[in-house]
Design a protein that fits this description.
By secondary structure, the protein is mostly helical. It has one domain. The protein has 3 helices and no strands.
Length: 78
């Protein structure tokens, strides 16, 4: 899910919440629940996913250096 998708989801959550619990239909309540659950799951997993991506990036950087590929310092410190 890309950033634009996340922003659309969050905007939809805000729309549904703005309607108010008493005025939302049952389908809207279910949609809101699904969207909030998906958002919460993403946030719970995010730190782990970032850590995993950093580990993979370090591994690729080390391999690039090992095989002699030019790898500028600014790629990791900028």
């Amino acid at each position: 899910m890309g950033l634009a998708d996340l922003q659309r989801r969050d905007a939809r959550i805000a729309e549904l919440e703005a309607i108010g619990r008493r005025n939302r239909t049952r389908d809207q309540d279910h949609e809101l629940g699904r969207l909030v659950d998906a958002r919460d799951q993403l946030w719970r997993r995010l730190a782990r996913r970032i850590a995993d991506a950093r580990t993979r990036a370090r591994d690729l950087e080390a391999y690039a250096r090992q095989v002699g590929l030019p790898f500028p310092e600014s790629a990791t410190h900028g």
